[in-house]
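Running this now, will post back.
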Amino acid sequence: MGRPITGCLFKRGDTYWGKFSYRGRLYPFSLHTDKEAYARDELHRQMTLRRAAMIDGTFADKYGRDDAPPLIPTTGRLLLRDAWARYVQCRTRPQSGKSTLQQYEYQFETFVAWMKKSRPQVAYIADVTQAMACGFLNHIEARQVSSNTFNKHVDTMRRVFRVLSSEAKALETNPWEGIQHKKGVPNRREAFSEVEFQAILSKATGWMKTLFYLGFYTGQRLVDCCTLRWESIDFGRDVVTIIPRKTTNTSGLKIELPLHPDLRRHLLELRTQASSLQGFVLPDIAAMHHQNSSGLVCR
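Update: finished.
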């Protein structure tokens, strides 16, 4: 058996990337972070997924092309398929958090995939028209998404095209400017009572039960519940110490959350079943959230 394929780190601007060679081809991929320690952990996880795909024969479907070409031209015509990688390199883009940047990437690549299917003759970002932008939004609307989701797609596309227009000089006009947001009735949700919550818990099992416990007893956002680490839980002081993902790139302020007795009991029980007390409390869910944050939404 040959030696396992391993990846190595490199930096592109402020962002860490991984790369590896497979069957004579180089595969670079963004790790979406400027923190070296996190990048090393994420590289190990991503390479584990890629090696598994090589073994089960799904590599070509999942990773058949590079996440980005080794170098993105800074001048001249910019291909649609290269636009996201160029956006990530732009110094003038908003400094978004890791999960936010992943969501932007998902929304932008959804547009690229739609263009490839419905407008295959359009290869360059400068050739995207407002009529095409509206066609894509009609496609999004046909999926019966909420007004909020629709508006987020508009904002992401407008932002990416604006940055590429000003820094990469990839287009003269932004086809997304002037497109209006959809008005919608905001959803109003009442908090669960203790009785309602206990009824939910009686039906929940596995990781879903743990997420309910974390959300109800700490008030954290879903992303912070999914990516909670054992190192953040101090059973001696009965506190959970985190830096919320939303403020990681702004204030970076640590907060301490009290450990409710019921949550403490649940986590202690979970700890006896854990294979490691380092890393994520819910490693599979953390990986799932990293791959597709929109796939884990409580409705």
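The CA atoms of residues 84 and 105 lie 7 Å apart. More later if anyone needs it.
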